[in-house]
Amino acid sequence: MKLIRFGNINEEKPGVELESGKRIDVSAFTEEFDEKFFQTGGIEKLQIWLKDNTENCPEITRDTRLGSPFSRPSKIICIGLNYAKHAEETGAQAPKEPVIFFKATSAIVGPNDDLIIPKNSTKTDWEVELGVVIGKKTSYCSEEDALDHVAGYVLHNDYSERAFQIERGGQWVKGKSCDTFAPLGPWLVTRDEIKDPNNLNLWLKLNGETKQSSNTSDFVFNVSEVVSYVSQFMTLLPGDVISTGTPAGVGMGLKPQRFLKEGDVVELGIDGLGTSKQHVKNYR
């Protein structure tokens, strides 16, 4: 099942995109795709409800804006340097344990909303990533049980301001958390639809030119490993996102380096998770 949220910013309603591509409003079933929805078995209940109610749901027109496919989670946890070739291009050693950092949830926007280059930015960069959405409260889970705690998967562009991240001291979070730096979607695809999250093609294009093209099989730490690992240090709540890292091809790793500027167009996608597109604009 593909969960969506649609409508104007801060006015989104829950919906579903059917196999036919038709989008329907399911706000008669639930007001929101949020922590309570996931914690109370909302996905399974919605699947049952749709068997009898799909035809009665209002259709959503294709030109309607999509927001993030679930409401603001308690946290976005990111895994750094989690592709072997990306670690190599940055000049770093592949980590012996997952590198964890946070991204502010206020950075979340819809999949096709504009990217706003922040004030005083000189090095805004792109990063296509697989996001893992937690489905139930999780602490100290084993690798063997980790996928049972997953609600589904989402496409994420982990935009990063490299000067803020690397050259300004402190932790990475301030280079990751600017407004619009976390477009999610178009869909949250439920776990049953993704056969193997550790074997998905992912790509990113800048102005039509492919910059990133890889497969999650290049993970240093796979999905089960990172879910289990993060749960050893903090409680994961339903709707939380673990963003699993980016492959080689980021602007910082190019020679010469290339960072985003107004007028650029970034497109990205992952097998089974759809595509998104962001037009780049300067902060005003």
TrEMBL record:
It holds the Pfam family FAA_hydrolase. InterPro entries: FAH (IPR051121), Fumarylacetoacetase-like_C (IPR011234), Fumarylacetoacetase_C_sf (IPR036663). GO terms for molecular function: hydrolase activity. It comes from the Bacteria. The keyword DNA repair does not apply. Keywords: Hydrolase, Metal-binding. Residues 75-280 form the Fumarylacetoacetase-like C-terminal domain. PANTHER family: FUMARYLACETOACETATE HYDROLASE DOMAIN-CONTAINING PROTEIN 2A, FUMARYLACETOACETATE HYDROLASE DOMAIN-CONTAINING PROTEIN 2A-RELATED. Belongs to the FAH family. This is Fumarylacetoacetate hydrolase family protein. It comes from Autumnicola lenta. The lineage of its organism: Bacteria, Pseudomonadati, Bacteroidota, Flavobacteriia, Flavobacteriales.
